[in-house]
Amino acid sequence: MKIILILFLLFQSVTTFSQTIKSKLLKEKIGALTCENVMQINLTNNDTSYYFFCSFQNTEYQHIIDIGSIMISRKNKLTTTINQLNQCLKYMETGKVDFSIGPFILYDFAKVLYIYDDNKKTTISKKSVIKLINFLERCKLDY
């Protein structure tokens, strides 16, 4: 009986890991941003998911690595982000306006868009904002 109990406890403590495959559907360097649209397949339950991931080096630091990021896994959040960027683009064209929406901020003293992730930030030009919008419009997400 002790052997059965020991075997049961031994097998109970073994953890299993799910196997996943990741495939980058799109990848592009846009200004200071590295953007990817990724498909992830869980082989254990055949579940497929898609997400958008964008990373950047915090411009506050030059000698240490401090990465900021934006991750989107839902279509409605993707649509919201595209709309926010289009609004920023409109104000970038007029210039000299302070404007803030979501993680994006325009300052009246700059001709670039600031992107924030908590206390991490980077900037991209008007041309890069247009490229980012085009990239996001091509991204595939499931729901």
Write the layout of secondary structure elements.
Blueprint: H1 2-12, E1 20-30, E2 33-42, E3 47-57, E4 67-72, H2 75-94, E5 99-101, E6 104-106, E7 113-117, E8 120-124, H3 126-138
Antiparallel strand pairs: 1-2, 2-3, 3-4, 5-6, 6-7, 7-8
What can you tell me about this protein's structure?
31% of the residues lie in helices and 38% in strands. The chain has 143 residues and is of the alpha+beta class. The chain has one domain: 2-Layer Sandwich (Secreted effector protein pipB2 fold). A hairpin with a 4-residue loop joins strand 2 and strand 3 (47-57).
Strand content: 35-45%
- Assign an overall shape: elongated
**CATH top level class name:** Alpha Beta
Give the integer mean of the pLDDT values: 89
Q: What is the CATH fold-level name?
A: Secreted effector protein pipB2 fold
Report the uncertain regions.
Answer: none
For the largest sheet, list the strands in their spatial order: 1-2-3-4
Number of contiguous helices: 3
Beginning-to-end CA distance, first to last residue: 51 Å
Sequence of secondary-structure elements:
HEEEEHEEEEH
Helical content stands at: 25-40%
Domains counted in the coordinates: how many?
1
Give the C-alpha Rg. 21 Å
- Given helix and strand content, the structural type is alpha+beta
